[in-house]
Design goal:
globular, TIM Barrel, alpha/beta
Length: 173
């Protein structure tokens, strides 16, 4: 499912995943993990893999940038890994000026390695400008977002941070 958070429509998501699973189709949930545990548990019972986005590890910064704390998000990631044993792929959007500091990346890498294990694959997702065109088309009031995508050196430095924690890292994904 793309274009939104599938956990926001859990009944539809479960129905669709159940049909896919029963048809022998490999199922994947792409989520930020912001949902009640009961919802997560119900939905992931029909998935083979979870793509889990970690936007910012600091709860204060996470709330400032997303509107919600990340406490439930981090707890759900732990619980998926430890209680349900469903493979989880950690996805880290890299957004200059928001979450790309090496301090944040070290803390994120530490969380993934220590809480989810070093067998958890990490995908770095460099910010791209494709959404800016959509924003302009929607004719939203206010200032459009204008962020320069991170350079190759920045991504390479972040990759080294994650690798220093024993994690396997990919760019894109």
């Amino acid at each position: 499912m793309g274009g939104g958070e599938p956990l926001a429509s859990p009944e539809f998501t479960v129905s669709l995943l159940r049909l896919c699973k029963n048809a022998g189709i490999h199922t994947v949930l792409d989520t930020c993990g912001y949902a009640r545990w009961e919802t997560i548990k119900q939905v992931v019972s029909y998935v083979d893999l979870v793509l889990y986005d970690f936007k910012h590890i600091d709860p204060v910064a996470h709330k400032e940038y997303t509107g919600v704390s990340n406490d439930i998000i981090l707890d759900n990631a732990r619980r998926i890994h430890h209680e349900l044993s469903i493979p989880l792929l950690a996805r880290i959007p890299v957004i200059p000026g928001y979450n790309d500091s090496l301090e944040n990346m070290k803390a994120t890498a530490r969380f993934v390695a220590m809480e989810l294990g070093t067998s958890t694959n990490v995908h770095l997702l460099p910010y791209h400008r494709l959404g800016e065109v959509k924003y302009a088309r929607l004719e939203k009031p206010g200032n459009p977002i204008s962020i320069e995508p991170p350079g190759e050196q920045k991504i390479a430095a972040i990759k080294l941070v994650f690798e220093s924690f024993g994690l396997k890292v990919h760019e894109g994904g």
